[in-house]
Automatic annotation (TrEMBL):
Keywords noted in UniProt: NAD, NADP, Oxidoreductase
Single GO MF descriptor: glyoxylate reductase (NADPH) activity
Organism field: Roseovarius azorensis
The UniProt record lists the keyword Nucleotide-binding: no
Family classification: Belongs to the D-isomer specific 2-hydroxyacid dehydrogenase family.
Protein's name in the database: Lactate dehydrogenase
Length: 312
């Protein structure tokens, strides 16, 4: 009898723990889960989910005993939460344990963009430096004006780090927050107008779809650099690429994309972008902690105890 089903591409360590600790059966995709025999699906009470494919009500209906979808990751926009709620299916995620890594990557990408570290690496490796070619001067980041679009858990960690770089902090959230003197803006365009660097740390999903609009990018302006570690859906990517190509925006550093992993090929032709393969939380330590928290939520659910990190 399969009471716990794991769907997705899990590391060997996580897969072993899912099997050993929770007796989970593991399949690689939602399609494979849907293709399981009806009798198998009927016994599933909890699903450990890892992936970005849409998990909607029609899929949930294939598991009539389902009570929990435990997501691997803090962003759970792939799961149709309203569908889960109407079916009395709880949803959990893995917040906080990944804040440091995602914030580290955001700051690292911003520095890499300003200081042209990718091009500098190539300059040193290629022999251009040894041949006597000078590496062009680049852009100072410390002391600049930065805006955080979405001062949540990760946004706050990014802001704290950038404050240590002596930057002037501005932010947008749905409401003003307790901060050490950072400037609140109630409108993303006003935020972008006030800064040279804009770091996006919003949730994904329909509520934030395209919040970094052409208008926001134009407010950021020709000296502006956009950093996105949230979801590709938060940015008008066509408007972004247009502006990076013609100089209406100075640069971008992106860990997430609309059509990832098959990113728009126009990005690869740009010299003013730093591109990362959605690896914000991708360290050994953090991925292990995410897997543990996902399993812990399932374990307490199966034991009839309160969920640890319930989002719906
Ligand atoms: P969080 O604490 O919930 O913060 C999310 C931010 O989004 C908050 O500022 C929140 O506004 C804002 N927000 C939430 N609902 C909104 C709505 N309906 N309309 C407008 N804004 C809304 O989440 P977190 O833990 O910081 O994670 C943020 C996101 O980072 C995740 O959802 C995920 O998409 C992304 N992420 C990416 C990676 C990566 O590998 N690149 C890794 C982890 C997470 P308030 O401040 O007003 O609450």
């Amino acid at each position: 009898m399969t009471e716990v089903l794991a769907i997705g591409s899990f590391s060997d360590v996580d897969a072993a723990a899912l099997r050993d600790d929770l007796g989970a059966r593991i399949v690689d995709s939602l399609d494979s889960a849907a293709a399981l025999h009806e009798e198998t699906r009927a016994t599933v009470r909890a699903i450990a989910f890892k992936g970005h494919a849409t998990f909607d009500g029609a899929l949930m209906d294939l598991f009539p005993a389902l009570g929990l979808i435990a997501n691997y990751g803090v962003g759970y926009d792939a799961i149709k939460v309203a569908d889960a709620q109407t079916r009395s299916v709880a949803v959990t995620n893995t917040p906080d344990v990944l804040n440091d890594d995602v914030a580290d990557l955001a700051v690292g990408m911003l520095i890499a963009q300003c200081r042209r570290m990718v091009q500098g690496d190539d300059h040193a490796r290629s022999g251009a430096w040894a041949d006597g070619q000078e590496f062009p001067l680049n852009r100072k980041m410390s002391g600049g004006r930065v805006g955080i679009l979405g001062l949540g858990r990760i946004g706050r960690e990014i802001a704290d780090r950038l404050a240590a770089f002596k930057m002037e902090l501005h932010y947008w959230s749905r409401g003003e927050k307790q901060t050490p003197g950072w400037t609140y803006h109630d409108d993303p365009v006003a935020l972008a107008n006030a800064v040279d660097y804009l770091v996006v740390a919003l949730v994904g999903g329909p509520e934030t779809e395209g919040m970094v609009s052409a208008e926001v990018l134009d407010a950021l302006g020709e000296n502006g650099v956009l950093v996105n570690i949230s979801r590709g859906s938060t940015v008008d990517e066509v408007a972004l690429i247009d502006r990076l190509e013609d100089g209406r925006l100075a640069g971008a550093a992106l860990d997430v994309f609309r059509s990832e992993p098959g990113i728009d090929p126009r990005f690869a032709a740009l010299d003013n972008v730093v591109l990362q393969p959605h690896q914000g939380s991708g360290t050994h330590v953090t991925r292990a902690a995410m897997g543990q928290l996902q399993r812990d939520n399932i374990a307490v659910f199966m034991a009839g105890r309160p969920l640890l990190t319930q989002v719906a």
